[in-house]
Design a protein that fits this description.
With about 190 residues, this protein is mainly alpha-helical. It is built from 7 helices and 2 strands; from the N terminus they run H-E-E-H-H-H-H-H-H. A two-stranded antiparallel sheet has the order 1-2. It is elongated, with a radius of gyration of 32 Å.
């Protein structure tokens, strides 16, 4: 089916719907947003746009895509394209670079490490889209497991460990009490 229904190869921001071919109909899915607020431009509709461009047949309306204007009742494809390729992130990066360089350094530290500037964001997203088209299988994360598990509560002791701890405390208490008795005896004399 992926050969028959390739989807939208270039993300232009325009609404895209798969048309049925003669041999088989496209895979149909329904968008279940759950408890997500369905405001215009919400990221769930970005995921919907990605699934539509991937070749799925999902009943939808373009009214909730980023770039839809209520007054003209039209989808601004150029604005929607800007959001797909991270134009809003690049604009925020530029604003932070000029106004608050320290905040820019902390917010975009990974981008700085990888030498991605605001002008390179669109190219980065184009490479990502091309890589997903080339091999859509999900890759296993390369993260290293934590060296030691953080423990916020005390480890439970076994019966023998609790018993040994109690005996140790009693011996320490008895020895302290015995040393105190010797001092009292010296004072009496």
């Amino acid at each position: 089916m992926d050969d028959e229904y390739e989807g939208n190869v270039e993300a232009t921001g325009e609404d895209f719907s798969v048309e049925p071919a003669e041999s088989r109909r496209p895979f149909r899915a329904l968008l279940d947003v759950g408890l997500v607020r369905t405001t215009t431009g919400n990221r769930v509709f970005g995921a919907l746009k990605g699934a539509l461009d991937g070749g799925l047949d999902i009943p939808h309306s373009e009214k909730r895509f980023a770039g839809f204007a209520k007054d003209s009742k039209q989808l601004d494809a150029e604005l929607h394209r800007k959001y797909i390729y991270g134009g809003h992130v690049a604009a925020y990066m530029r604003t932070l670079m000029e106004d608050e360089p320290e905040k820019y350094q902390s917010h975009f530290s990974e981008y700085i490490k990888k030498e991605i500037d605001p002008d390179g964001i669109e190219e980065m997203y184009k490479k990502v889209h091309a890589a997903i088209r080339a091999d859509p299988t999900q890759k296993k994360s390369e993260k290293q497991p934590p060296k030691e598990h953080k423990r916020f509560n005390l480890k439970k002791l076994t019966y023998e460990e609790r018993k040994a701890s109690l005996i140790e405390r009693l011996n320490a208490l008895n020895s302290a009490a015995g040393a105190g008795d010797d001092e009292d005896d010296e004072d009496d004399e």
